Amino acid sequence: MMTPQKKTGIILVGIAAAMLGLSFAAVPFYDWFCRTTGFAGTTQVAAKPSDVMLDKKITVWFDASKEAGMPWTFKAEAPSMELKIGENGLAFYRAHNPTNRIVAGTASYNVSPDSAGAYFTKVACFCFTQQVLQPGETVDMPVSFYVDPEIVNDAEAKYVHEITLSYTFHETDLPEEQAALAPGLSGASN
User: Fold this and answer.
1) Quick one: what percent of the chain has pLDDT higher than 70?
2) 86 in the Ramachandran plot: left (φ > 0), alpha (ψ -120 to 50) or beta?
3) How far apart are alpha carbons 39 and 118 in whole angstroms?
4) Residue 167 CB: number of other CB atoms within 10 A?
5) Sheet with strand 138-147: strands edge to edge
6) Over the stretch 48-101, which tens digit does the pLDDT of each residue have?
7) What is the mean pLDDT of the chain?
8) Are 67 and 166 in contact (CB under 8 A)?
9) How confident is the model at residue 177 (pLDDT cuts 50, 70, 90)?
10) Higher-confidence position of 20 and 89
């Protein structure tokens, strides 16, 4: 026969184990939730451009920033673009590595206002993969996107006339094959 203290202990261990399991599930669930709903300005991804274009126009602003310590210069080539809702847009961001070493970076992104996140759809983007710049290299990086025409049917988002697409570049570790090819450069500092 189990004592009440032992039964309580087993219940508490079970609750703690369940909470630990849920904490590991929280990150992938939150990521899925944000991608599905556009929560917190999370953008959508599509395999091809929109085939529906409305007569209504919207302005997209482009923002570029860097994490502290990221040595690149990084900026949008144009501050904004006006396009029809559903029209495919193509914008470019320019990155330059002014150092004497290879630098890898990954861009995090979001859109504001948050209500537009569920309708801002990327077809192709430099932010989907790590970018590696050689010493002194400058690259123009494209983002192909459209604003989903369904935005006009959303009770809150239909009043959005301007969207800001923001990217922040973070320095990341070099891929092993890049680091192995240039050990003298990858470890050098500016």
Assistant:
1) 79
2) left
3) 7
4) 22
5) 44-45, 120-125, 138-147, 89-96, 73-76
6) 878 899 999 999 999 999 999 999 999 999 999 999 999 999 999 999 999 999
7) 83
8) no
9) low
10) 89
β-pairing verdict for 138-147 and 120-125:
antiparallel
pLDDT score for 31: 44
- Residue 126: both structure tokens together: 């430099």
Question: What is the pLDDT confidence band of residue 138, given thresholds at 50, 70 and 90?
Answer: very high
In 3D space, the residue among 40, 96, 91 whose CA is nearest the CA of residue 71 turns out to be 96
Does residue 75 contact residue 93 with C-beta atoms inside 8 Å?
yes
Pairwise CA distance, residues 105 & 107, whole Å: 7
- Over the chain, what HEC string results? CCCHHHHHHHHHHHHHHHHHHHHHHHHHHHHHHHHHHCHHHCCEECCCCCCCCCCCEEEEEEEEEECCCCCCEEEECCCEEEEECCCCEEEEEEEECCCCCCEEEEEEEEEECHHHCCCEEEEEEHHHCCEEECCCCEEEEEEEEEECHHHHHCCCHHHCCEEEEEEEEEEECCCHHHHHHCHHHHCCCC
Pick 122 or 1 by higher pLDDT. Answer: 122
CA distance 136 to 13: 57
Q: For the chain, first and last CA: distance in Å? A: 71
d(CA 67, CA 57): 33
Cβ contact 47:67 at 8 Å: no
Query: What letter represents residue 143's amino acid?
Result: V
